[in-house]
């Protein structure tokens, strides 16, 4: 399965990385590790989460809101 981020999501991810890094050095990197882990789970088990609408599912991070 291919997972892609639309441009707006990439911008939001970059902003979140910057925010967490400004809160505490290294926290942005920890956030990115969590996001990468979730993306890998989504790729491996694409139907494991509730479908919000046709073709759209949500998987929340464990540590970060």
Task: Explain how this protein is built.
- Helix content is 54%, strand content 8%.
- It has 65 residues and is mainly alpha-helical.
- It has a domain at 6-41.
- The protein has a two-stranded antiparallel sheet with strand order 1-2.
- Strand 1 (51-53) and strand 2 (56-57) form a beta hairpin.
- The longest helix has 18 residues, at 27-44.
- It starts with 6 loop residues before the first helix and ends in an 8-residue tail after the last strand.
- The model has no long low-confidence stretch (mean pLDDT 93).
Percent of residues in helices comes to 40-55%
Structural class by SSE content: mainly alpha
Strands of the largest sheet, in order across it?
1-2
Output the helix-strand order.
HHEE
**Shape by Cα distribution:** elongated
Largest sheet: 2 strands, antiparallel
CA-based gyration radius: 13 Å
Beta-strand percentage? 5-15%
Uncertain runs with pLDDT below 50, 5 residues or more?
A: none
> Quick check: average pLDDT?
93
Helix run count:
2
* Total beta-strand segments: 2
Q: Could you tell me how far the N terminus lies from the C terminus, measured between alpha carbons in angstroms?
A: 25 Å
């Amino acid at each position: 399965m291919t997972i892609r981020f639309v441009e707006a999501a990439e911008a939001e991810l970059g902003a979140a990385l910057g925010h967490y890094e400004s809160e505490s050095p290294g926290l942005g990197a920890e956030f990115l590790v969590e996001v990468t882990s979730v993306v890998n789970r989504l790729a491996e088990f694409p139907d494991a989460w509730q479908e919000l609408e046709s073709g759209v599912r949500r998987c929340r991070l464990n540590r970060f809101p």
